[in-house]
Amino acid sequence: MEEYLDIIDKIEHYRRFGRETGLALTGKLLEHTGRFTLPYIHIAGTNGKGSTAAFLNSILIKAGYKVGLFTSPHLIDFTERIRVNNDCITREHACAIADRIFKISEENGIEAGMFDYCTVIGCEYFKEQNVDIAIMETGLGGRFDSTNAIGIPVAAAITPIGLDHMAILGNTIKEIAGEKAGIIKDGVPVAIGPQEPDAMEVLLNAAIKAGSDIYKADVKRSEKYTLGLLGSYQLENAATALCVVDILRDKGYAISEEDVVLGLKEARWPGRLDRLFEGTNVFIDGAHNIHGVKALKDSLVNLFPGQKIRFLMGVLSDKDYKAMLSEMVPIASRIDTVTPPGERALQGSELSKMINEMGVPSEFKPDLKAALTELKKMPADEPACIFGSLYFVGEIMEILQKMS
């Protein structure tokens, strides 16, 4: 246990960004560990990457495949990032592989970052487990992302693109879409989720230039299925997953309609419009940018038409929290606040003051456990939702795990 915590602490304290890109650094590590030659699906996008991956993971497992799943961030434990058929990598495996990669890095002077190590640990584990296919989610962007060094996927997928990480990816939808389009490889089919016109234009041009077959997602198609994930925005993610299924079928993968029906129905992805307490309408959602918050708002309005929602919000200071509030204020009965973990967190007291000035009741809740206990006691006919940061979601999941 102590060794595992030391390893994870070492990984998480490596820099997030440096002089060299994740693409370059991960590429250097993979030159020493051996290239990843197993089939994989590469997913990029601003919102919906994890949910789309979850749908695909569930469908492929139903079809009888051994599936590797690489996602980020984790909510409670690092091992959640790397799974095979829904089972997380063991702590022992994570330590053993990390030790090997640290040694390679030190011996060859490779100044890799946190996500570079995560990516290579995932690749090595999937190779050891000899998965039939892996699903790899980008960390940030696409063109220079660590996962873009892995190789040539059997399919690429790009989920809805919005404004996020603008200091790194660009200030416009077109610029950000250009970065995400970087995962489109020559001749590799691409599934494109519903997009704003500017993003769609960039993605289509990139796919045409690469000579890639284009599979455009249609929400009407996913509406006929029962989805295991709540939220109207999940129709977009399911539609994107269905396009990837089409690509795989065209490549000879055996995926029946029953596999699709059961896979979509039984998919699970914690922290995405998750009901927190049985017998209540208290939900938690990882929406942490304006695109995600708009999608969450639409889902809540559909679930609770005409009702005001009570919110608990925690957000990072580098997010466009003013725009996020502008979306939620019209449907809010009150918006209480917390300070999420991490150096980038916006102080809950500062956020609460801003909300009060916008004319909505708000109180800073310094004790998160007490705030959750309060929400748990809410009447079943009164909806509430916790949102603002995936790191915040992870902290809540950890508290609830201890409470139970």
Keywords for this entry:
globular, 13 strands, 45% helix, 8-stranded mixed sheet, UDP-N-acetylmuramoyl-L-alanine:D-glutamate ligase, alpha/beta, 404 residues
Can you describe what's shown?
By secondary structure, the protein is α/β, with parallel strands linked by helices. The chain folds into two domains: 2-266, UDP-N-acetylmuramoyl-L-alanine:D-glutamate ligase (3-Layer(aba) Sandwich); 274-403, Protein-Tyrosine Phosphatase, Chain A. It has 16 helices and 13 strands. An eight-stranded mixed sheet has the order 4-3-2-5-1-6-7-8, sandwiched between helices. Strands 9-10-13-11-12 form a five-stranded mixed sheet. Strand 3 and strand 4 form a beta hairpin. Helix 12 packs parallel to helix 13 (321-328). It starts with a helix and ends with a helix. The model has no long low-confidence stretch (mean pLDDT 92).
Give the full name of the CATH homologous superfamily of the largest domain.
Answer: Mur-like, catalytic domain
Which regions have little confidence, pLDDT < 50, spanning 5+ residues?
none
Q: Specify Rg, calculated over alpha carbons.
A: 21 Å
Q: What is the fold named in CATH at topology level of the largest domain?
A: UDP-N-acetylmuramoyl-L-alanine:D-glutamate ligase
Major beta-sheet overview: 8 strands, mixed
Strand order of the largest sheet: 4-3-2-5-1-6-7-8
Number of domains: 2
Quick one: overall form? globular
Mean pLDDT: 92
Q: Under the CATH scheme, which class of the largest domain?
A: Alpha Beta
Number of strands: 13
* Terminal CA distance: 22 Å
- Determine the fraction of residues in helical runs and give it as a percent range: 40-55%
Strand content: 5-15%
Structural class by SSE content: alpha/beta
Q: Based on the structure given, which CATH architecture of the largest domain is correct?
A: 3-Layer(aba) Sandwich
Would you list the SSEs in sequence order as H and E? Answer: HHEHEEEHHEEHHEHEHHHEEHEHEHHEH
How many helices?
Answer: 16
